[in-house]
Write a structure and sequence with these properties.
single chain
């Protein structure tokens, strides 16, 4: 899920996307234009749009090889992480610290992740990874054998994908069955955003970038405010695939306004944040942040819990720690500060953990090389 460092705009865009994911989960008191562009109304579609932007038709030359490469790149790490959290959740449950999570089985390790990824809770935000993989595979096959890179076919394909998106929303109740149909609905929802990302790079970007920035941003803001004024809440839950408006066209509109707004903001920020090591690090660790930000909050809460057992921390809720998937410790008057800390922890923790892991594996690899040479 990390992107090309040379594309500063999209590096910043992916960093903004993952930041909004963590803010959505950890910081209800932090409002980053959430009243105008509600986070959940676009941020998962944003990652699909980015994936479509970086899609290359060269991948179609060897379909099997491309799919295998993608599987090794994102699904193998995903399954290993899922196993880790299966063990971790089992240990936490055995000590009575949490009261959730399913037993480890072939189903919870390899099947449920493609449906909702609720099985071990701590890594549930990474439900996006298996869905992204399947969406990529579908798009690769459709683009190679049906669309074939022809401009008219691209437009027809986009129209068909948009119809798929609306049908998925219309039949969203089927997702409650939590089976293969849930996965199919999510993929159908995401396909147009993958195609839009690709078409934006190939045909539309050069025109979009010529639009006057203040006027363009004002139009997007006004358009979304009108949508909110007419249709009400634009939020929906892609994880559970629920909470959609009865107006099946609305999620596509709200997703695109959010994507286009933050795309232009990213272009503005690229001029002075493009070389930022912090932003670059966030952008290149979106996979780790998506997979691990919940556990870093949990570890902090466990530390508070251990202190609470001896000193009785005010407002600490042991029952919520045991039952809430995301327990946010709140203190009147301090919530904004605490939640800001949680966001930093949710982003910085996985990055630091990943760097330590890379250092350890690099050291072990060098050690094995020395042994072989000796």
């Amino acid at each position: 899920m990390s992107q090309n460092k040379s594309n500063k705009q999209f590096m910043i865009l992916s960093a903004i996307g993952i930041l909004l994911v963590v803010v959505c989960h950890f910081a209800g008191s932090i409002n980053i234009l959430n009243d105008v562009f509600p986070y959940s109304s676009f941020f998962m579609s944003l990652f699909i749009f980015i994936s479509g932007y970086f899609y290359s038709t060269k991948k179609e030359e060897h379909v099997g090889k491309s799919i295998l490469h993608k599987f090794k790149k994102i699904m193998v790490p995903f399954f290993l992480i899922n196993l880790f959290y299966g063990i971790f959740c089992t240990v936490m449950r055995s000590y009575g610290i949490v009261d959730y999570g399913a037993p480890i089985s072939l189903y919870t390790l390899f099947v449920q992740p493609f449906i909702n990824n609720n099985q071990f809770v701590f890594n549930f935000p990474s439900w996006f990874v298996p869905v992204l993989f399947v969406t990529y595979c579908f798009y690769l096959l459709i683009h190679k054998f049906i669309i074939k890179g022809k401009k008219i076919n691209e437009i027809i394909g986009l129209v068909i994908f948009i119809i798929f998106n609306m049908l998925a929303i219309y039949f969203n109740d089927i997702a409650r069955q939590e089976d293969l149909r849930t996965l199919i609905l999510k993929v159908a929802f995401f396909l147009p955003f993958f195609e839009i990302g690709y078409l934006y790079k190939m045909y539309w970007q050069k025109y979009e970038e010529k639009l006057n920035t203040p006027i363009y941003l004002a139009i997007l803001v006004i358009f979304n405010l009108v949508l909110i004024g007419i249709f009400g809440d634009l939020n929906y839950d892609m994880h559970e695939f629920s909470g959609f408006s009865p107006y099946v066209f609305l999620p596509l509109l709200s997703s695109m306004t959010g994507i286009l707004f933050w795309l232009r903001i990213s272009k503005i920020l690229a001029s002075f944040l493009g070389d930022s090591k912090i932003v670059n690090s966030i952008s290149n660790h979106t996979f780790s942040i998506m997979s691990h930000h919940i556990v870093y909050l949990f570890i902090f809460n466990v530390i508070l819990y251990m202190i609470h057992l001896k000193y009785q921390i005010p407002y600490f809720d042991v029952e919520k720690l045991a039952n809430a998937w995301i327990y946010i410790y709140e203190v009147p008057g301090w919530n904004l500060l605490l939640q800001s800390f949680y966001v930093v922890l949710g982003i910085g923790g996985p990055i630091l953990g990943n760097k330590i892991w890379e250092k350890v594996t690099s050291t072990l690899k060098k050690g094995r090389i020395r042994i072989k040479r000796s």
